[in-house]
Amino acid sequence: MTYSFILANLLSTITIFSFGIIFSKIFVEKFEKPILEEIAFYGFIFLSFLGLILHFFFPLNHVIGNLITIFSLSYFLLFFFKSDQKKKLTKYILIVSSISILLLYASNINRPDAGLYHLPYTKYLQENKIILGLANIHHRFGHVSIVQYISALYNNSFFPEEYITVPLSNIFGFFFTYLLKLIFKFKNFFNIKNFFLLILSIFSFYSFSRYSNYGNDAVSHMFFFLIIINLLFLENIKIKNLIKINLFSIFCFLNKTFMIIVLLIPLFLNIKFFLKEKKIDINPNVLFCIILVISWLIKNILISGCLLYPVSLSCIKSLSYVDISNTKQVEIEGSAWSKEIRNEQILKIPREVYIKNFNWVNGWFQFHFKKIIEKISPLIIILFLLVIIKIILARCKFKELEYDKNILNIFIFCSIFFIIWFLKFPLYRFGLSYISVLIISIVCILSSIIKNQNNVNFFTKFSYFLIVLSVLGFVYKNGLRIVNSNDEVYTKYPWPKIYTLSENNKNLLNENKKIYNSDGEFIYFYSQGECLFNSSPCSNYKKNNLKIKYFLNYKIILPN
């Protein structure tokens, strides 16, 4: 099992990288030659897109999984033997795979969301082509992440079902490698941009140190950090910059709907580029972005009847499978939940009233504000200590406040995002990236008054020490978890536990029961607990009033 586990991570890394090479050759290399880490990000996006497109017509089953795996491996071998950077490429693949293995081994999936809809949706993708009205079975299926599509593609004949958990850890392996490569290029961390990246890197190693914490939110926050890094070092707006920022921003949104506000960044940059160049450049990359977004919105309409579920104003009410009253109820419940309503009896206020006219603010401060302070306190402490050290090393020499234009833009964007976040969905896990980057940008702007001519080398060495310490903390945290997880369950089952109804795990959850319509036709499986990675489609909400019909061999789930 251990050998299979290691091989799976290596093969997964290669698969993502191979499709990144293909994407780069088609859409990127005309404008610039991307670095290895950027190629990997492109591959992750491209594979997700392929899964999305293919699922309109086919289940993402073993056949497709096998073809993807064989093709990517073959392509990589051809590329590898033609490459003049074999050593560099081998080293890179091994490092990323090692990080992935460290994150995954004896780990667990993110709960409860994984059990409620991440894994059930992945299973649905593998066993069915697209089902119209799927959100009628489980409302959470209406707002899933594109990450589930790349997970579903990791379904093949070579590895066990747990292989679907691998790509998520791979992408964070690529991300951490990308950060380290950037950070060790710098020679002066008194430089405000380099200082910004230093803090962001330390915070990333701290925040994304456990695979079990990786829900779909974490992927969105990671890509947001990538956008910020590209903004940070943006000199002139060129097509090569727009390619990355456009793609990463769209992918943020496709991971989590609340990240739609991030699209303000590429919108601003593209308008600025147009005003400067006086032309609209419709290159292959732009077309890819358009097709990606349109495909996602079409998928949303087919599954839920809404462009952005559960935003009722975005729904097409004339579609037969749209239950607009239920959608509005889900919208109210989602808004109340994101504003930290815990119990109507405690607050003595119904949800519809709670979310109106800032009635929720008191409840939010009562239940959630403390949690946010606890979460961001390590970041604040690190920033405070580093600024103090900078002042000491600069021998308390100050100058007039000088702001960096890029950091100021980041501050403005994140201030807007923070306000929207607070008004619409003020949970920390939704705003982690906005809050952290906003704090970092404020501190960097204020610390620009510190003169930097003294002790530059010492501060740089100290900064490297902090990064190394962060990496060691990351390794220690995961290593300790592995050592402590030496019981029989993990010995026999070293992958992330996704829990199925196999013989070894049957006692962990209830058997799924089949739900039929009035005509005796099977509609979905029902589980009193979490559906997890069992037969699909599956819901933990029992609905007996659903109907089923067919159109051109496509299944449609109808409300009664």
How does this structure look, described?
Among the domains are: 2-304, no CATH class; 506-559, no CATH class. A hairpin with a 5-residue loop joins strand 1 (513-516) and strand 2. The protein has helices spanning 2-28, 36-55, 62-82, 86-104, 113-127, 147-153, 166-183, 192-207, 216-232, 239-255, 264-277, 284-304, 324-338, 344-347, 351-354, 360-367, 369-393, 405-424, 428-447, 456-484, 488-492; strands at 513-516, 522-526, 538-539, 546-551, 554-559. It contains 21 helices and 5 strands. The two termini are 47 Å apart. It is mostly helical. 44% of the residues are buried.
Query: Approximately what portion of the residues adopt beta-strand conformation?
Result: under 5%
What value does the Rg take, in angstroms? 24 Å
Q: Please identify the structural class as seen in this structure.
A: mainly alpha
Output the strand order for the largest sheet.
Answer: 1-2-3
Order of helices and strands: HHHHHHHHHHHHHHHHHHHHHEEEEE
Q: How many helical elements?
A: 21
Helix content: 55-70%
Overall pLDDT = 87
- Cα(first) to Cα(last) distance is 47 Å
- General shape: globular
How is the biggest beta sheet arranged?
3 strands, mixed
* Low-pLDDT segments, ≥5 res: none
Secondary structure tally: strands: 5
Quick rundown:
By secondary structure, the chain is mostly helical. The protein is 61% helix and 4% strand. Among the domains are: 2-304, no CATH class; 506-559, no CATH class.
Keywords:
mainly alpha; two-stranded antiparallel sheet; 3-stranded mixed β-sheet; 21 helices; 560 residues; 5 strands; single chain
